Amino acid sequence: MEDNSLYPRLLASKDEKIRKIAKQFIEEIGGIAPAFNNYLNKWPNPASIESNPSDFINETRDLFNALKNRIDRENNILYPLIDKA
Fold first, then answer.
1. Residue 70, SS3?
2. What is the pLDDT of residue 23?
3. Nearest in space to 18 (alpha carbons), one of 72, 66, 79
4. N or C, which terminus of the chain has less Cβ within 10 Å?
5. Are the beta carbons of 19 and 11 closer than 8 angstroms?
6. Could you give the CA distance from residue 2 to residue 9 in angstroms, rounded to a whole number?
7. What is the DSSP code string of 36-52?
8. Which of 66, 83, 71, 82 is nearest to 20 (CA)?
9. pLDDT computed for residue 46 by the predictor
């Protein structure tokens, strides 16, 4: 949702610093949605998970870490910048 509604607005901001940070975040973190779609396609049902549980665990951990990193960076860098504007 943020990728489709928040970030386009930030890229259109009058504040150059907000535009710059938003663009940087999109470039650095924008791959989460495609990664999540690949994850859903690879693990569509319990049988797919049961056939390779270690890969499922590793990929789930990687996806959660990517999400946590994005949320942390937004909370600590982007949103405070927006609040100041």
1. helix
2. 92
3. 79
4. N
5. yes
6. 10
7. HHHHHHHS-SHHHHHH-
8. 82
9. 98
Q: What is the DSSP letter of 14?
A: S
Q: How confident is the model over 13-40, as pLDDT tens digits?
A: 999 999 999 998 888 777 788 899 999 9
Cα–Cα distance for residue pair 81/9, rounded to 1 Å = 14
User: What confidence tens digit (pLDDT) does each residue in 51-68 have?
Assistant: 999 999 999 999 999 999
Angle CA(1)–CA(6)–CA(13) in degrees, nearest 5? 165
What torsion do the CA atoms of 41, 28, 12, 76 make, to the nearest 10 degrees? 110
